[in-house]
Each structure stands twice: as structure tokens, then as C-alpha cells.
Amino acid sequence: MGQQSEIDSRGFTLLELILTLLVVAVAVGLVAPAIGRSTEAVRARAEVAGFSATFRHAREQAITTRQQYTVVVNPVSRLQTVMTGEDEVRWTRALSARLTIEATSSGGEFRISTGAVTYRVSVDPVTGRVRNHRE
């Protein structure tokens, strides 16, 4: 009898292994969609940060160099171009997100969407201050 109980207590039964694998599979199934949503949100935040940084940098350069800087946003080609003077292009940045513009010549609002995540970027027409807000 002593030998039989030693042999039985050395390993796991097939039922225990199947139940453990089932619990792990359910946990992975619940966590995987949340990870996908969080990477989408991180990608959207990075896109908005770069978009806003371009406006801020152009404003700072205009103030320090005392030159007129123009930021042109093309929603069709998804390009953001910074120019000085009439037609000297300083830099161009490609946007990977969908873009909606509600703007005037000196300010306005931009909506940047990646999947289900949407951010509103507003540029104050008087001060040029750039603000981001998740919708």
C-alpha cells in the first residue's frame, strides 16, 4: 500500500492537465482583444502627438526666426507639409490615420481617427496653441 500511494502522487492526471490548458486558453482569449485595442490606442496617441508637434515646432520656428511658416494639411493624400515663404518646403510628414478638417486659415479643429479611436486637435486662431482631446 505504501508504494502505491507514492506512485499516484508523483504526477498530474490527464484531467488536471486538460483543465489547466482550458483555463489558460480562456484567459488568453479574454486578454488578446484588450491587447489589440490598447496597441490601437497607443498608435493613435503617437499619430496625434506627431501631428501636434509639427504645429508646435512650426510655431516655435516662426517666432525664433521671425519668418512666416505655413502648415498645409492635405486630408486626401494624408500629408502635413511645413513651408516658409511662398513655396520653400521645410519638411513633409505622412499621416497614417484618417483625417477630418474643420479649419480656417489661422486655426481650427482636426479630427484624427485610427480604427475606433478618435482625437480632436484644436489650434487656437489667436494664440496658435495646440490642444489634443480624445473623443
Give the key terms:
7 strands, alpha+beta, 4-stranded antiparallel beta sheet
Distance between the termini: 69 Å
Largest beta sheet: strand ordering: 4-5-6-7
Proportion of strand residues: 25-35%
Beta-strand segment tally:
7
Please describe what this structure looks like.
The chain is of the alpha+beta class and 135 residues long. It has a domain at 13-66 and 96-134. Helices cover 44% and strands 33% of the residues. The chain contains 2 helices and 7 strands. It has helices spanning 2-8, 14-65; strands spanning 69-74, 79-84, 88-94, 98-103, 108-114, 117-123, 130-134. A 4-stranded antiparallel β-sheet has the order 4-5-6-7, covered by helices on one side. It has a 3-stranded antiparallel β-sheet with strand order 1-2-3, with helices on one face. Strand 5 (108-114) and strand 6 (117-123) form a beta hairpin. It is rod-shaped, with a radius of gyration of 27 Å. The mean pLDDT is 83.
